[in-house]
Structure formats: structure tokens, C-alpha cells
Amino acid sequence: MGDISKECIAEICGIAEKHGTKALVKEPLSRHTSFKVGGECACFAEINSAECLTDMLGYIRANRVPYYIIGRGTNLIVDDGYIPFIFLHLGSGFADMRVEGDRIICQSGASLSAVCGFAADNSLTGLEFAYGIPGRIGGAVFMNAGAYGGEMKGVTAYAKAIDENGCVKRFEGKDLKFSYRKSIFSENRYIITEVCLKLNKGDKSEITAKMNELMQRRRDKQPIELPSAGSTFKRPIGSYAGMLIEQCGLKGYRCGGAMVSEKHSGFVVNVDNASFSDIMAVIEHVREAVYEKTGYLLECEPEIIRAQR
Ligand SMILES: Cc1cc2nc3c(=O)[nH]c(=O)nc-3n(C[C@H](O)[C@H](O)[C@H](O)COP(=O)(O)OP(=O)(O)OC[C@H]3O[C@@H](n4cnc5c(N)ncnc54)[C@H](O)[C@@H]3O)c2cc1C
């Protein structure tokens, strides 16, 4: 794949400027991923409105420029090399929220924790499970994020997304094809712009107490103090990745700056300026060793973005 032309980058920067936002040229993705790993991309554009997104997409698609949608980058493992893509970041500039009865309607760049806090403030229950899952609501719906017995499937009334022709489509919850860490958007790669959550009236102090309890469980059990992309492996049917890895004696297994967490074996963590190859070497070793000893073939949960070679 060839590089993106200077004229194209200048156009993207011009569109960003027109909308009062910024496009960063040759921006290191390590600044935008929770693993703190990732090489430079061609351009990293902040989206701050639906109009800005429409303009960017109009130009990008008309000129067949490769692009990638990124939220908070908490479910990504990005190569250290150059990534010849325009990254469109749907983040805090695209994060309006409002409440309508027992529903919350938010732009897809809203952080999941902020939406949880907004639900608690409005005495709405049902989203407690998600408190502490990092990332944006768009990424959460895309991944069908879940924890502690809940998942986005259970609370998403509808999502609006832009299709390949630039048209906004509305998908009702039942049509979102939610399954384990997947949604219809994993197949069609449409761009989620708005999410509506259906919750229930509840007691504010009980909701807040539940969220705090779940957050404490995370702090106790997960290495949230170290950079990672969360659980490195999907839960295999009939077992748990962390348990299998621990049984194979791989807790603390290390390659360069990447290591199987001592606190929770299901997490590969960045302990000392890990490179992409360090992380992939740990993942490959764990997969091979677990398969050999237990017969379970572990599948990577985060998305892997490879560089141009
Ligand atoms: C410490 C830690 C703990 C975690 N705990 C959990 C957990 O308990 N449960 C869980 O499910 N996950 C967990 N995760 C993983 C991650 O936080 C979730 O998957 C999260 O929902 C990803 O959101 P994001 O905004 O960071 O998405 P990103 O990582 O930016 O993107 C993930 C995917 O979604 C796509 N995407 C993002 N936004 C949009 C959009 N608006 N439209 C279309 N596509 C989009 C991207 O293209 C990419 O394919 C954890 C991660 C960390 C680092």
C-alpha cells in the first residue's frame, strides 16, 4: 500500500481547521492507545461534530484514502512501524449526552465511564456493570463490551451509524447482532455516531455504591495501574484464559518490556517500554504453550493493527 500524498494530508488538515479542530500529521499512535505502543500514522484527526465527520468522510471516500476509526484505543495492539492511514478519532469533542425519561442518548465519543456517571446522576440503573471499562461508548457498542454479568447488548436500544455511502442508518438493539465481543459493526465497519441506552429508574445511592464496588473489584484483581489492552485473550468455551495461562506456569512470563501480569494472567502488560514485537512474542508463546498443555487454542481479543513493511 502506498503512502498518502501531501496534498491529501493538506486537505484533511484544511477540513479539520474549517471545523475548529486539529489533524496531527505523523502522529505517534502510542499517545492514543492504552498499551502505549504504536508507530506514527499518516494523520490523526480529531472529530468534533457530525458535520466534521461527514466532511472528512466525504473527502476520504471520494479519494479512496485508507482510514481507521479510533475511540480511546483501549482494545488495540498497534505495530511500531509507520501506519499509512488517516485515523479519525471520535473522542471527547464528540461526546454530548442527554436524558429522555429512562433513556440516555449520547454521541459515540462519550467515555463509557462518563455515561455511567451520567446514568447514576439521573438515577438510572442497568449500566453499573460497565463502570470502569475504559474507552468510548462507540467502541463499547462495536465490541459489545461486558463485565460482571452485563454487556452492551442488554442496554442498547439503538445505535446510529454512517454506512459506506455516507448515509446515516439506525439499527434497533435486536438488529445489532451482538455476540461475545462482537456486533454488526465488526462485520460492516460502519461508523457509530450515536447510541441510545434503555435503562430503568433506580436509586441513585444504590447505583453509585454498586459502581464503586465493581471498580474496587477491578482495582483488586486487574493490573489497571499498568498499560495494557485489557484481557488479551477471549474467554474460551468451557474455561477461562487467565486460569489456563496460570496452570501452564506462565504468570510473569516476559519478553523485553511485555509480560504476563503477575496480578491477573489474562492480561499482557507493558512493564518497560514494550515494543509491538515484545507483546506479540508473549502472546504467541502463551498461545502455543497453552495449546500444547491443555488443548485450548486462545484467541486474541484486542484488534491488531499492522504497519506497512
Ligand atoms: C484496563 C482495561 C480493562 C478493560 N476491561 C474490559 C472489560 O471489562 N470488558 C470489556 O468488554 N472490555 C474491556 N476492555 C477493553 C476495552 O476497554 C473495550 O473493548 C472498549 O469498549 C473499547 O473502546 P475504545 O473506545 O477504546 O475502542 P478502540 O480501542 O478505540 O476501538 C476498538 C474497535 O472499535 C472500533 N470503533 C471504535 N469506535 C467506533 C465507532 N464510533 N464506530 C465504529 N467503530 C468504532 C475501532 O475501529 C476498533 O475496531 C478493557 C481494556 C483495558 C485497557
Task: Walk me through what this model shows.
The chain is an alpha+beta fold. It is 30% helix and 25% strand. The protein has three domains: 85 residues, Uridine Diphospho-n-acetylenolpyruvylglucosamine Reductase, domain 2 (2-Layer Sandwich), CATH 3.30.43; 125 residues, Uridine Diphospho-n-acetylenolpyruvylglucosamine Reductase, domain 3, CATH 3.30.465.10; 65 residues, UDP-N-acetylenolpyruvoylglucosamine reductase, C-terminal domain (Uridine Diphospho-n-acetylenolpyruvylglucosamine Reductase, domain 1, Alpha-Beta Complex), CATH 3.90.78. A five-stranded antiparallel β-sheet has the order 6-7-13-11-12, covered by helices on one side. It has a four-stranded mixed β-sheet with strand order 1-2-5-3. Strands 15-16-17 form a three-stranded antiparallel β-sheet. Strand 11 and strand 12 form a beta hairpin. Bound molecules: flavin-adenine dinucleotide. The site of flavin-adenine dinucleotide has 31 residues, from strand 3, helix 4, strand 9 and strand 13.
Short key terms for the protein model shown above:
Uridine Diphospho-n-acetylenolpyruvylglucosamine Reductase, domain 1, 309 residues, four-stranded mixed β-sheet, Uridine Diphospho-n-acetylenolpyruvylglucosamine Reductase, domain 3, five-stranded antiparallel β-sheet, alpha+beta, binds flavin-adenine dinucleotide, Uridine Diphospho-n-acetylenolpyruvylglucosamine Reductase, domain 2, globular, single chain
